[in-house]
Amino acid sequence: MKVLTITGYKPMELGIFKEDDHKITFIKAAIQKKLIGFIEDGLEWVLISGQMGVELWTAEVIIDLQKTYDIKFAIMPPFENQESRWPEQLQEKYQKLTMDADFYKPIYQGDYKGAFQFKAKNMWLVDKSEACLILLDDENPGSNRFLYEQAKQTENYPIFLITPADLDDIVEELRMSDPDYWD
């Protein structure tokens, strides 16, 4: 697999309302762990639409991994100015990440026109990648369910998940790696 799409929840869907929430650390660690395995198996590109939450955290993880690995990422938003209604801090973060991306291009030119743009974005991301990685809790799906449903309809398209159990494992791993844990 050379190209992977990654998506997940928006921050508010996870009860995250501040950029310094400790849950983000665990989510990023889970993404990083999965990505390193994929990179070591030949992954070259990650595609995201740049939505706030898991996708922007993925971009930050990749930028960090680029110090050690040859991995690139593309931000392909459904339309221009998708961040225009976001909080100012997230708008600035998004704009910086689009500059740091190895490739950036909105799927539709112009601003939001309708929900069809989100559906087209999901179809495009699945079509242009060989598999997807989704942070997903089957019992509490959010906006991530739309790409997940698109992926499930695609023949021979692997879907990798980061589940709540995976996040619990990451929390435990990080706690156990802290020397103070053993005192």
From TrEMBL:
Gene3D superfamilies: 3.40.50.450. It comes from the Bacteria. InterPro entries: YspA (IPR010697). Pfam families: YpsA. Belongs to the UPF0398 family. This is UPF0398 protein ACFQ3N_19405. It comes from Virgibacillus byunsanensis.
